[in-house]
Design brief:
Elements: E1 7-11, H1 24-34, E2 40-50, E3 53-56, H2 72-75, H3 85-97, E4 102-105, H4 112-121, E5 129-135, H5 140-150, E6 158-164, H6 170-174, H7 183-196, H8 200-204, H9 206-209, H10 213-216, H11 225-232, E7 239-242, E8 246-247, E9 251-252, E10 255-258
């Protein structure tokens, strides 16, 4: 029987995170070495938004370069991890049972919200990776419910990852020097406290409970993977902060491990 895996929220930052690991990349690398080898990694990313929920079924997902204006070297990266059609079928089963409007998708590959952070976790691309889409009308409570519907997978050897960004104001990312950039650190501090307190109402209702919520997240899609990962964890799960620091003044790179991490060293 597989040990129950924790769930993980990761800030995937700019696509340049693929080649500029900063503080966060090495921590994800170590985490990948410490965790028992997963049967698969299931990722919710804001870069695949659909009507209803779709589940990627491809056995050999393509690396999607869904960004523009970056160095050519970034577009040459391929992350050739296999997919996992059997886990995808289980995802469909669980979401159908929970009443979600869900359908299979045989075309979607791995967008940069998936392959960029998972490439740090498993640089050899030797663990299957698949995605579940983000419904375009998802909100905080819905993200928790979506994670809870998939939580049984953690006991079946699947690492559930919500990939977003703990702060994500791209206007300020492109316009440095705006007043009070310290708001981003205040939002990060709030998130750590809310997670450690298991304050589900605050996590799901962040717009009403978090300081500077609308400035940290002018749109919700990069925040919602956090309540998703929270919902996928066991109630009262231990919270470990992987402090990724702050890039470009306002783009925080924290990751949060939700649950006890069984230790099983993998080769470096």
């Amino acid at each position: 029987m597989s040990p129950r895996l924790p769930s993980l929220f990761v800030s995937h930052g700019s696509p340049m995170f693929a080649v500029e690991p900063g503080l966060a990349g090495p921590q994800l690398r170590r985490l990948g070495q410490q965790l028992p080898r997963p049967r698969a990694v299931l990722v919710l990313s804001p870069h695949w938004m659909t009507r209803g929920v779709r589940v990627a079924m491809a056995a050999a997902p393509e690396t999607i370069h869904d960004f523009g204006g970056f160095p050519q070297a970034l577009y040459e990266i391929r992350y050739p991890a296999p997919g996992s059609p059997d886990v995808a079928e289980r995802v469909l089963e669980l979401l159908n049972a929970a009443g979600w409007n869900v359908s299979p998708d045989t075309q979607h590959g791995l967008d940069h919200g998936a392959w960029v952070p998972v490439r740090h976790l498993y640089p050899e691309a030797d663990v299957p990776v698949l995605q579940v889409s983000m419904p375009h009308d998802l909100d905080g409570p819905g993200a928790v419910r979506l994670g809870r519907a998939l939580a049984p997978l953690a006991g079946e050897g699947v690492l559930i990852v919500g990939s977003g960004s703990i702060t994500h104001n791209l206007f300020e990312f492109r316009q440095p020097g705006l007043p009070n950039p310290g708001y981003a650190a205040e939002f990060v501090d709030w998130a750590r406290v809310a997670l450690r307190a298991h304050d589900e109402a605050a996590i799901a209702g962040y717009l009403d409970s978090a300081p500077h919520a609308r400035r940290a997240h002018p749109t919700p899609e990069h925040y919602l993977p956090l309540p998703f990962a929270y919902g996928a964890a066991q109630p009262g799960a231990k919270v470990e902060v992987l402090d990724g620091g702050m890039t470009h003044g306002t783009l925080a790179m924290d990751a949060y491990l939700l649950g006890e991490a069984p230790q099983q060293a993998r080769p470096a």
